[in-house]
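## retry 2 of 3
previous attempt timed out at serialization; input unchanged, resubmitting
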Amino acid sequence: MCNKKILFVNAREDICRLFQDALNGSYKLLFACGEDVSELNIADKPDLIVLDGSSERKFFNLCRDIRLATAAPILVINNSEEELDIIKWLEAGADDCVRKIFSTREVIARIRALIRRGETVDKEPSVTHDDASLILSSDGLEIDIYNHKVTRDRVPVMLNRREFNLLVVLVKNRNKALSREQLLEQAWGVDFGGYARTVDTHMWSLRQKLEKEPAHPKHLITVRGYGYRFEP
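## retry succeeded, writing output
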């Protein structure tokens, strides 16, 4: 058995059986139920958390609390393929979403990719004190990469690990256009099993948190047909 651990949170009995049959012997499987992080097995330091949020909207908050408690990747089983629903889960701290009606082989592939990604994501984009000086903008946005601090009008902005890593890469390459593929590789590692929409949804989330007018961004600029750039 692999020493990697997967924690299934609030998974229905049929989901638990499915994954036990598909994954047993490959990973150590843990199961927990609850609406509070203290009720879960976070202390066991799982390498991946699978949250079944397909029936309870309130699990958005639980996902957010799990993200604050651990940096382990979170895979959400979701009832909807609507982009706004997926964005809400990403904003809550999820790393990937899969619809409840899924291919077992596809989900296993996503699980393996997320565990690999978790190993590389802990190695954040290299930052030295010299290239991580405080960046100030005229409209109150402050980004201190070295100290992991972002504020808007002196109010702290909460970013999850994926959002912060993406911001680091953009800021270090400020005024330079980066393709979606470059952002995927530099922010989340070459093993990232994602696609262009993943960058787009995280950029949407960053704009909601950092821009005064997200629909008319002044800093996180779209380079049509290519990618994005950061303008201080």
